[in-house]
Amino acid sequence: MISVDQKPSDLGRSGWQAILPERSPQPALEQDISCDYLVVGAGFAGLSAAWRLRQLDARARIVILEAGQVASGPGGRNSGFMIDLPHALASGNYAGDGSEDRRIIRMNRSAIAFAGEIARACNLPTEAFDPCGKINAAASASGNAHNRDYARHLESLDEPFELIDASAMQAISGSDYYQSGLRTPGTAMIQPALYLRGLAGALQQQADSEIFENSALCQLARKGQDWVAQTKRGSVTAARVILAVNGLIETFGFYERRLMHINLYASMTRALDAAEIDLLGGEPRFGFTPSDPIGSTLRRIDGTGGTRLVIRNRCTYDASLTLPDGTLDTIAPVHLRTFHARFPMLRHVDMEYIWSGRLCLSRNEVWALDELQPGLFSACCQNGLGLTRGTVAGIVAAEMASGKRDQSLITDYQPQAMPQRLFPEPFMTLGSRSVIRFREWRAGREL
Ligand SMILES: Cc1cc2nc3c(=O)[nH]c(=O)nc-3n(C[C@H](O)[C@H](O)[C@H](O)COP(=O)(O)OP(=O)(O)OC[C@H]3O[C@@H](n4cnc5c(N)ncnc54)[C@H](O)[C@@H]3O)c2cc1C
């Protein structure tokens, strides 16, 4: 029997959810039911898995259990970059022939195409899923050098890109903070809460698909050929179970001491008024990733909730899977300072929302994606590019669970090694925190 123990933390209110209309959650599970497939977790991995299961088996009964509400977890708390290109490319230098980079890019693009089909099938607005590309923004000489180097790699892979100078960056963003940018067309920009809500709503409307919110799985036991999943007030008996719970898979007793848990932080301004929008200038929407991965991610949005800017920076390592009290109070001034450094003309504009969410990494950058026990599958640990890789994990886990990997949408996925063991405590925590602080210091203006 597997028992789950999760400690709640106050993660702050995600702006992505807050700017959307109120939504009534699906009822919690309060009975004993059975199904063909149980999916645990309604993030990118879980909902993608459920969608793919439905494609593979039109008649199956599919149940989804979500501990909180749809999009209340990291799935609805991220910056919404569904990225096709890896942060680091191995090819184009003296050793690689590019085949590994090409495989990963094809795999990522299959997942983005899958998400695009979902957006079309669910009639989601462009705001929810916009395949408009993104810009890797450089605010320093080393950021510039990184962009030029990355562009050389892209060239060797025959990948399209555009290098943008400082004045063009200002024309896009209204800010003179940036020295250059590298625009690539393959990223989809997502309003993560809107996308997940739309996907969950479409699944809920299908016959034989059901989502139960505020229904945390707390015990899982094998009974004959089936699995019995217990929540506080009900149970689900299922032939096959997919655990799509990100780093929390560790609380189920799997991959213990193999996963790294990083808290990330984001803030969203209040809606700008017409005079502030004039003052700012620039384009109505843009998405900047930082040329130093530990730097600031920046978005301007203009859909539901008006024109707002969203900034993400700072990260902390916490093996306890919690957010210590008061952390958001220490992050808030950093967000304000780094935002005002970019937009001094908006120095009177405050953040309306600040929030945190958890990212899961493994030392060797592999998924925790496998058949753990007969009929029990995991689709966890997305490392970087969690939206793209979470979608890959969901699709692959669904194909494994239904025994239909031969019909795979992700033919470029390759079976993964086990996530490497972490170093013993306290060295792991001390070491990770030191590395993060050093890299944040080194990031300089990129933060
Ligand atoms: C501030 C921030 C910015 C980020 N920006 C980006 C970005 O721009 N691009 C990108 O690719 N990635 C980004 N990420 C990372 C990305 O959000 C994650 O990698 C992604 O959400 C992982 O998806 P998932 O479906 O695997 O897990 P999650 O989104 O974590 O979903 C897991 C779900 O399982 C549920 N759950 C857990 N335990 C149980 C249980 N016992 N019973 C039932 N349900 C349970 C949780 O409530 C949750 O909803 C960001 C993360 C943060 C926090």
Structural overview:
- The protein contains ten helices and 20 strands.
- Strands 1, 2, 3, 10, 11, 12, 13, 19 and 20 form a nine-stranded mixed β-sheet that branches. It has an eight-stranded mixed β-sheet with strand order 7-8-6-15-16-17-14-18.
- By secondary structure, the protein is an alpha+beta fold.
- Strand 16 and strand 17 form a beta hairpin.
- The model has no long low-confidence stretch (mean pLDDT 95).
- Bound molecules: flavin-adenine dinucleotide.
Write the layout of secondary structure elements.
Elements: E1 2-3, H1 15-18, E2 32-40, H2 44-56, E3 62-65, E4 81-82, H3 99-121, E5 129-130, E6 134-138, H4 141-156, E7 162-165, H5 166-173, E8 180-184, E9 188-190, H6 192-205, E10 209-212, E11 219-223, E12 226-230, E13 235-243, E14 260-269, H7 274-280, E15 286-290, E16 297-301, E17 308-317, H8 327-342, E18 351-361, E19 368-373, E20 376-380, H9 386-401, H10 427-443
Parallel strand pairs: 2-3, 2-13, 3-10, 6-15, 13-20
Antiparallel strand pairs: 1-11, 4-9, 5-9, 6-8, 7-8, 11-12, 12-13, 14-17, 14-18, 15-16, 16-17, 19-20
The structure holds flavin-adenine dinucleotide.
Flavin-adenine dinucleotide binds at residues 4, 40-46, 65-68, 73-75, 77-81, 216-217, 244-246, 248, 264, 266, 312, 357, 359, 380, 382, 385-388, 390.
Rg calc: 21 Å
Distance between the termini: 45 Å
Arithmetic mean of pLDDT: 95
Helix/strand class: alpha+beta
Largest sheet, described in full? 9 strands, mixed
Ions, cofactors and other bound molecules: flavin-adenine dinucleotide
Q: Please provide the ordered H/E string of secondary-structure elements.
A: EHEHEEHEEHEHEEHEEEEEHEEEHEEEHH
Please give the number of β-strands: 20
Q: What is the beta-strand fraction?
A: 15-25%
Shape: globular
| Uncertain regions spanning at least 5 consecutive residues | none
Q: Into which percent range does the helicity of residues fall? A: 25-40%
| Tally of DSSP helical segments | 10
